[in-house]
Amino acid sequence: MNWLRKVMYGRYGGDQLGIALIVFSIILSFVTMLIPVHFIGVVSLVPLTFCVYRMFSKNIHKRQRENYNFLIFWRKVKGFFTGIKADVKARKNYRFYSCPKCSQKLRIPKGKGKVSVKCPKCAAQFTQKT
User: Fold this and answer.
1) What is the dihedral of CA 101, 102, 103, 104, to 10 degrees?
2) What are the two backbone dihedrals, phi and then psi, of residue 45, each rounded to the nearest 5 degrees?
3) Each residue of 106-115: pLDDT tens digit?
4) In angstroms, rounded to a whole number, what is the distance separating the alpha carbons of residues 123 and 129?
5) How many domains does the chain have?
6) Is there a single domain that holds both residue 59 and residue 100?
7) Distance (Å, rounded) from C-alpha 26 to C-alpha 45?
8) What is the pLDDT of residues 89-102, one digit of tens each?
9) Which of 11, 25, 40, 127 could, after both became Cys, cross-link 48 (CB 3.0–4.6 A)?
10) Residues 6+ apart with CB under 8 A from 94
11) Which of 127, 69, 76 shows the shortest CA–CA distance to 100?
12) β 114-118/125-129 pair status
């Protein structure tokens, strides 16, 4: 195990982007098994090769920057799906409307009849039926 430590000394190693590249490569490999197109099989090796290149790279600052940019992107994707999940769960008790002026998403409790709503973002007032 000491030999591996010597080989990896001064090198970047693995991170979240590397894991994502490996998962993406595995998914492309499964797609290749389902759809017998040999070109996709070769393409599935590209993310894996890039992952290994990143792990053995000595340019640590650049690899950290790549991982940071990936995490920013991933946080947006994850937040989008988390928001959809929360909205679906909240639809039982709330209605969702958009402000006609600024398109801000507003949540109003169900079963209150006609309600006058004031947008917290632009202060526009409008009436909605819940």
Assistant:
1) -120
2) -80, -20
3) 988 988 888 8
4) 19
5) 2
6) no
7) 9
8) 888 899 988 998 99
9) 25
10) 107, 108, 109, 110
11) 127
12) antiparallel
